[in-house]
Amino acid sequence: LVFIIFGTWPYVVTGQRCPEFCQCNSTAGLRLNCEYQRLTGVPDLTFDAADNATQLSIGNNHIERIGPNSFFRVRYLKRLWLYRNRLTAIHADALRGLDQLIYLNMLNNRLTSLPANLLDSTPGLRSLFLSGNQLTTL
Question: pLDDT band for position 2 (50/70/90)?
Answer without folding.
Answer: very low
